[in-house]
Design brief:
Layout (H helix, E strand, L loop, with lengths): L1 E3 L5 E3 L13 H14 L6 E4 L6 H10 L2 E3 L15 E2 L4 E3 L5 E9 L5 E6 L2 H5 L4 H4 L7 E5 L2 H11 L2 H24 L10 H22 L8 H12 L2 H6 L4 E4 L3
Parallel strand pairs: 3-4, 3-10
Antiparallel strand pairs: 1-2, 1-10, 5-6, 6-7, 7-8, 8-9
Helix pairs in contact: 2-5
The structure holds iron/sulfur cluster (SF4).
Amino acid sequence: MAVDTAERVISHIQADFADGRDSQYLKGIGLRVQDRLGKNELTMTDLLADTGYSNGSNYDFLEQWKVTGWIPVFGKYKPEIEGFPYNKERDEYSCPMDRPLPFKGFSTNKDGTVLKNYWAAPRDCKACPMKLRCAPKKKCKSITRTIYDEPYLKAYARQHSERGWQMKRLRQSTVEPVFGSLTQFYGLRKIGVLGKAGAHKVMLMAAIAFNLKKYLKKGGRKPSIGILRTIIDVLQGYLTAFYRQIQPRAVLIKTM
Ligand code: SF4
């Protein structure tokens, strides 16, 4: 689900199987929301999502896409390796004994993530008094980093900035009430149909009802020829009316 932070309307909702990671859906959802906003001459500038959507490929995608991502970096990520400063121009690390660990090549882990590998010269490590502590069971010290280190670092810096804290609070105060409303008052506590397509329809109808209520509360045009006509109109372009009224500042993505 994606929710607009300016007006708290649902800008996208979809059903997916639970065997995938949240992060794999971010690009698809983001592109669909952007496309929908674009048809209404609006542009998405910021995207907020929780840690489940954190991965290097998503950070890189948002950078390329010129959308500022406010997605907390996964807990395991370390922006620096203690004792091993990085030299960006030379693309190499140096060790506590001031020996270089230059870039040596790419590899891929079992998730398919492309990694960059750096290692020190075995002759340096062999003669080093720190060898037992630094590279105990190997010929030399090696370092592996994701190819998305740069977008990761940017995301990390944003997350720990003052604005990052504000965006975190905004994310929590935007999506949770909408999520709560859908489960408490719009029948999404359980999905009573089989199959993804059926689940998607149920979720879409709940989102339409939610947005329609918002629209009417904001003084939108009341339906004059009955609820059926209204529903058909809404189904044909249910977000159009909302986006003509509002200027969304950002879109927030949340998995139910
Ligand atoms: S073991 Fe190798 S990498 Fe580690 S401090 Fe010594 S020279 Fe540097």
